[in-house]
Amino acid sequence: MSRIIKFRAWDGKRMQKVCRLGLRGFSTDLWSASPISCDIRDTKSLNIMQFTGLLDCEGREIWEGDLIRSVDERHAWEVVYDDACFWVQTNARMIELYEYHSFDIKVIGNKWETPELLD
Prior knowledge:
3% helix; mainly beta
C-alpha cells in the first residue's frame, strides 16, 4: 500500500504547510508567502503533525492532532500517532484509525485551533 506522506505544523498562531523537514529534526522549512523560498524554523518551536493518508466522509484530509467525530457520536476524539500507527484516542481506549475509519467520520477541528471541542 502506498500513500502520500506530508506534514503540517502549528506555530502557536496558525497552521503552516511544511515543505521540508530537516533530516536530523533540527529545523523545519515552512511554506512562505513567496513560492520560491521557505521560512526556516527551529523544530522545537513547532507542533509537527503527519497526514494519515485517509479522508473523512466529506473528502477532507485527516491529520495527526485532528479532532474527529462519527456521525452517531456526540464526543470529539483526537487522532494520535503512537507505535508506528495512527489511533483514535477515546476516553476508554485507543482504536486504530483504519478500523475506526470504516465508520462515517468527519474532521471537526484540531487540538490547537479548537481545543474546546475535546471537553
